[in-house]
Amino acid sequence: MSPSGRPRSLSLMFLLGMGMASERINCPSRCSCQYLEVNCTGLQLQEFPAAIPLDTRQLILAANNISYLPAVELSFLSDLVYLDCRKNLLGDDLDFTFIGVAKLVYLDLSFNNLTQVTFSTFSHLLSLMVLKISDNPNLVAIEKDAFANNTWLRHLDVSRTGLTFLDISTVRDLPNLRFVGLSDNLWHCNCSFLDFITWMTESNVHFPDADNITCYTPEGLRALKMPAVEAQLHFNCLTQLDKQDYIFLCLIGFCIFFAGTMAAWLAGICAVIYEVHTSKGEEEEEEEDTVT
C-alpha cells in the first residue's frame, strides 16, 4: 500500500471504530442492539432499561421482572412499531401508558399480571394490528369500548385469562379483525352471552384452538364447545322463562287485577250515586204533583 493511502486507511478504521463505539454506548447495558432493534430478553431486569436509542423501532423486553412501563420514557421512542413485553410482572393500571407510541403496530403483553383493560389502556394506539394479552390469569374485565379506537386491529388473543364474559360490541365493531384467541377461559354461558356466541358462528373471524373454547358455567353446560351450546342457549333463553320473568308476569297480573277491581268498584259507586240521585228527583216530582 502506498504511503499516501495509509492515512486514508487509518482514517477509515478510526471512523468505523468510532461508529462501533457509539453504537455500544447507545445500547442499554447487557442488551444486544442491531439496526433499529434493542433486545433485552431474559436479563432479569427489574426496571425499564435506560439509554434506549431514540430511533428504535423494535424493542424486546421478554422474560424479565419488569412491573412498570414508564409512559414518559416510552414516549421518547416515538418511532416504535414493535414492543414485546411477554413474561414480565406488568399489572394493575396501564391506562395512558402507551400515549406516546402511537405508531405501535405489534404489542405483546402475554404472561403478565394484567387485571383489566379499559378504554384508556390502548385507545392511543391507532395503528395497532396485533395485540396479545393471553395468559394473564388475573385479567377479569375488558370494557366493551376498550378497542373502539383500534380499528386496524387484526389479531387479538385473550386466551387463558380470568375472563368470564366479553361484550359483543367489543369485537363486532372492529372491521379488520380476522383472528381472535378465546381458548381456556372461564366463560359463563348465560343468556347475556348468547349474542357473542352467535357472532362467533356467523362472523368471518378465525378462532384457533376452537376445541378449547368451552363453557365453564353453568354446571349443565360445562365443557361444551361454544358453537354447540348456541342451540341450547337459544332454547333456554328465547323459549323458556326464568324466575325474574315469572316474578315480572305475576306483578303485571296483580296490577291488572287490582286496576280492574278498582275500576269495577268506582263504576259501582258511580252507579249507586246515579240511582240515588235519580230516585230523589222522581220523589220530588211526585211531591210537587201531589201538592198541585
Automatic annotation (TrEMBL):
Q: Where are the transmembrane segments?
A: 246-274
Tell me the InterPro entries matching this sequence. KCNMA1_auxiliary, Leu-rich_rpt, LRR_dom_sf, LRRNT
> Topology relative to the membrane, per the entry?
Single-pass membrane protein
Can the keyword Lipoprotein be found in this entry's annotation? no
Keyword list, A-Z: Cell membrane, Disulfide bond, Ion channel, Ion transport, Leucine-rich repeat, Membrane, Repeat, Signal, Transmembrane, Transmembrane helix, Transport
Query: What is its subcellular localisation?
Result: Cell membrane
Where is the LRRNT domain positioned along the sequence? 26-58
Q: Which GO terms describe its cellular component?
A: voltage-gated potassium channel complex
Q: Look up the signal peptide feature and give its range.
A: 1-21
User: What are this entry's molecular-function GO terms?
Assistant: potassium channel activator activity; transmembrane transporter binding; voltage-gated potassium channel activity
Chief location? membrane
- State the protein's name: LRRNT domain-containing protein
Which species?
Answer: Mycteria americana (Wood stork)
Species classification: Eukaryota, Metazoa, Chordata, Craniata, Vertebrata
